[in-house]
């Protein structure tokens, strides 16, 4: 035990034991940074940054977080991890990208943590995209609040959980950070935004890139209380964090701490400070390490103990560095592990067409599916633009749900697609099952950052710890002169995002069955719902109406459906064609096929990712001629990629090139109905292409 000299102790508002622990951990963080720098030829193989200069505020936070809390660190936050209880050895396994790296198993950068240990605060997967962590962790806070209101939260004897977003001041200029603040203020969420301001972006200084610091900016959000402190002062940092965490646990409202800190390390191991900075001496004067040493002396910690701790830490880091450097590397055979989390829905179950029921429109099948899920599962909730009780969705796809389940379970969001999508990461992390809606496919673009960076990669990069279970509903397609901003098809973009599932049903029965499967799937599922099929008002789409399946009906994601088969004699004579399509293409193909009785088999993909290659290849080998029908334009598209796959894998079975019918290639879908009609595929265009292919 350290020898303490209480006679020399100065007045202080912090316990000696806290200072001692803080000093030990800060010595560890500093020693790690120095070890990395001294061995930069080795350690810079994989890019990294350290907390050097930021240690005081980070340790003040990490030391006070509880196992029920959630925190979203950023890439310079290794001192938060040390404060939480991570060991130097574990951090160096991460540095060297080793198999036993506790965060990702060697898949992602140093200090991009994901942690799910029962005795430590929880860390959902953290990405490199600056500012992106603000939305998922605000989703965590929103989930905490939801569970408390719905009496689903664990009783922790008043020690209610807190969500913490750690972020650099430069990253706060991202628009998505503002979306997070907007929602935290609006909903009064139990979250702390810890902004570490070192006055630098990479090579851009504060004067170049911001109109004000975050203390000034955040005060413009009504209901967020702001503290501005010297983040290099451990005592001030610790006491401020202690005060704020206590208020959040008790009062359940948002706070922002703006902590001024020096940047003593490099931006990263690859972007060195001497390349561009002329303020190194000034920042060195604010080094938190000499300050905490002086604080240690002032609270009575003996000088000999200070020296002994430093010596002990250096020896520990040296030993664990060598051990981590020689640890086992990841197995290349594991590269596809945790691509998706396993789903329980692997086969079609339930009754698709119960007897004695009338057909209903497609939009109502989805409505009934969501209603049944919410009745059965209190952890299910629905939110998005205009889905609340007043309107129930612009397509009435959520009609009655708001009135039935109340404003906590069905609610409107601001116009914030990034928040709508990204918040599902946090909701899922706390055990909820969010169903959210982007109002039109054309509006999904602001949410792609979150969909690609946060949702799709979470399970893979956390090594299976944090799959994101969320259902994203997206009305899609051209219908009724919707024009250039309400008619787009986006499947070629979203199917290129690995780690999400994309379904595109063409009937009410499939929409209900896939909605149920998506809900029970532990992975993010994007449901593309063609608004032209919602009510079957377009001639030829009557088949989209279905007898509503029973409550237990599920359609496994990744399984195609045979809409109609060809006659065997046509197949034997080489006069048949397989049409592979989805969405509205199913109905163009059905109408066109009437001109060629018995000659056309139609496969409805239903799922675009992962795709049912077994059904596709079987149909190709059966008919030897294949046509693909899509509402998208053809070039550089999902469908063109599918054609390439068929020709690559089934070349010897083909008697003709794979034919494709799609939209005219234009930057947008024009408003005028005649122009829209000229651009889109239709049954006549499909029929002409079928004739050509059959006669090939």
From TrEMBL:
GO BP field: branched-chain amino acid catabolic process; response to nutrient
Compositional bias (Basic and acidic residues): 346-356
Gene3D superfamilies in the record: 3.40.50.920, 3.40.50.970
Coiled-coil spans in chain: none
Protein's UniProt keywords contain Oxidoreductase: yes
EC number: 1.2.4.4
InterPro entries reported in the protein's UniProt record: DH_E1 (IPR001017), THDP-binding (IPR029061), Transketo_C/PFOR_II (IPR009014), Transketolase-like_Pyr-bd (IPR005475), Transketolase_C (IPR033248)
SMART domains reported in the protein's UniProt record: Transket_pyr
Cofactor(s) this protein requires: thiamine diphosphate
Function description: E1 component of the 2-oxoglutarate dehydrogenase (OGDH) complex which catalyzes the decarboxylation of 2-oxoglutarate, the first step in the conversion of 2-oxoglutarate to succinyl-CoA and CO(2).
Protein name, entry field: 3-methyl-2-oxobutanoate dehydrogenase (2-methylpropanoyl-transferring)
SUPFAM superfamilies: Thiamin diphosphate-binding fold (THDP-binding), TK C-terminal domain-like
Keyword line: Oxidoreductase, Thiamine pyrophosphate
Region (Disordered): 109-128, 324-356
Domain Transketolase-like pyrimidine-binding: 360-536
Source organism: Brumimicrobium aurantiacum
Gene Ontology MF annotations: branched-chain 2-oxo acid dehydrogenase activity
């Amino acid at each position: 035990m350290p020898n303490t000299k209480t006679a020399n102790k100065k007045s202080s508002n912090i316990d000696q034991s806290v200072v001692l622990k803080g000093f030990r951990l800060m010595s560890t963080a500093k020693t790690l940074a120095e070890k990395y720098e001294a061995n930069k030829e080795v350690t810079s193989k994989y890019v990294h940054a350290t907390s050097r200069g930021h240690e005081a505020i980070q340790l003040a936070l990490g030391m006070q977080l509880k196992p029920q809390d959630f925190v979203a660190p950023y890439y310079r936050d290794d001192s938060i991890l040390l404060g939480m209880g991570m060991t130097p050895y574990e951090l160096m396994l991460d540095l060297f990208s080793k198999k036993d790296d506790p965060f990702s198993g060697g898949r992602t950068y140093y200090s991009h943590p994901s942690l799910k240990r029962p005795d430590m605060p929880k860390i959902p997967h953290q990405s490199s995209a600056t500012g992106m962590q603000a939305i998922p962790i605000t989703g965590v806070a929103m989930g905490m609040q939801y569970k408390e209101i719905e009496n689903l939260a664990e009783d922790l004897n008043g020690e209610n959980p807190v969500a913490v977003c750690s972020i650099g001041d430069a990253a706060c200029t991202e628009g998505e950070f503002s979306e997070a603040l907007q929602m935290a203020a609006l909903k009064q969420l139990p979250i702390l935004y810890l902004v570490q301001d070192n006055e630098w972006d990479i090579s851009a200084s504060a004067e170049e890139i911001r109109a004000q610091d975050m203390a000034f900016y955040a005060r413009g959000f009504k209901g967020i209380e702001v503290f501005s402190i010297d983040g290099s002062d451990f005592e001030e940092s610790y006491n401020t964090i202690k005060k704020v965490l206590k208020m959040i646990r008790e009062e359940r409202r948002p706070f922002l701490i703006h902590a001024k800190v020096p940047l003593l390390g490099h931006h990263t191991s690859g972007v060195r400070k001497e390349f561009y900075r002329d303020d190194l001496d000034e920042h060195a004067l604010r080094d938190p390490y000499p300050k905490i040493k002086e604080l240690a002396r002032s609270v009575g910690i003996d000088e000999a103990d200070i020296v002994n701790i430093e010596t002990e830490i250096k020896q520990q880091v040296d030993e664990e560095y060598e051990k981590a450097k020689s640890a086992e590397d990841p197995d290349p055979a594991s590269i596809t592990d945790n691509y998706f989390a396993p789903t329980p829905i692997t086969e079609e179950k339930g009754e698709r067409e119960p007897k004695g029921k009338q057909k209903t429109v497609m939009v109502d099948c989805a409505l009934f599916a969501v209603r049944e899920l919410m009745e059965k599962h209190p952890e299910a909730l629905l939110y998005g633009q205009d889905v609340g009780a007043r309107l129930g969705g612009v397509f009435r796809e959520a009609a009655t749900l708001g009135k039935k389940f109340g404003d906590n379970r069905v609610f409107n969001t601001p116009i914030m697609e990034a928040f709508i999508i990204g918040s599902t990461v946090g909701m899922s992390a706390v055990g909820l099952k969010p169903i959210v809606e982007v109002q039109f496919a054309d509006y999904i673009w602001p949410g792609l950052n979150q969909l690609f960076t946060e949702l799709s990669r979470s399970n893979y990069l956390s090594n299976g710890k944090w799959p994101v279970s969320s259902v994203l509903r997206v009305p899609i397609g051209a219908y009724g002169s919707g024009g250039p901003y309400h008619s787009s098809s986006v499947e070629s973009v979203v199917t290129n995002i690995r780690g999400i599932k994309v379904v595109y049903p063409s009937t009410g029965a499939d929409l209900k069955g896939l909605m149920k499967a998506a809900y029970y799937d532990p992975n993010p599922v994007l449901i593309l719902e063609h608004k032209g099929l919602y009510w079957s008002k377009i001639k030829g789409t009557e088949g989209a109406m279905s007898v509503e399946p029973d409550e237990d009906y599920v359609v496994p994601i990744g399984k195609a459906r045979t809409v109609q088969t060809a006659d065997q004699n046509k197949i034997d004579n080489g006069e048949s064609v397989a049409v592979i399509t989805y969405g509205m293409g199913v109905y163009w193909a059905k109408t066109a096929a009437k001109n060629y009785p018995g000659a056309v088999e139609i496969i409805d993909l239903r799922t675009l990712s992962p795709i049912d290659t077994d059904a596709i290849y079987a149909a190709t080998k059966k008919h030897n001629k294949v046509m693909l029908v899509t509402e998208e334009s053809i070039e550089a598209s999902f469908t063109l990629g599918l054609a390439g796959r068929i020709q690559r894998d089934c070349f010897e079975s083909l008697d003709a090139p794979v034919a494709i019918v799609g939209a005219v290639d234009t930057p947008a879908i024009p408003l005028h109905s005649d122009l829209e009609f000229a651009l889109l595929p239709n049954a006549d265009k499909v029929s002409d292409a079928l004739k050509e292919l059959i006669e090939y």
